[in-house]
């Protein structure tokens, strides 16, 4: 990519249809029945969080007192990508033997590792 086609990295915004339009997609639930009042509450929620031009794309009931929303809105401010301060992780990769030695030295016994997933955890 040449310099002329690079985005402005001092005010980096996401985009949906047009570069720099700031569009984001947001999905959430509210504990209210689906309907015009719920749609207005969702819109006001985005406006109160400084998002502009909220657009309701989808509202579905997910129970008698619960509504699911997919909305689009625009962020008002970008991020200065060119000047981010990102801490760098420093580590040394270990092979299996080194890991075994480290466990023996610091823990002093065999380890049992159990992994599990309780379901569709977000």
In total, the number of strands is 3
Annotation field: number of helices? 2
Radius of gyration (CA) equals 24 Å
* Main sheet: strand order: 1-3-2
How would you describe this structure to a colleague?
This protein has 122 residues and is α+β, with helices and mostly antiparallel strands. It is 20% helix and 24% strand. It has 2 helices and 3 strands. The chain has helices spanning 36-48, 96-106; strands at residues 23-30, 52-63, 66-74. The chain has a 3-stranded antiparallel β-sheet with strand order 1-3-2.
Keywords, please?
single chain; 122 residues; alpha+beta; 3-stranded antiparallel beta sheet; 3 strands; 20% helix; 24% strand
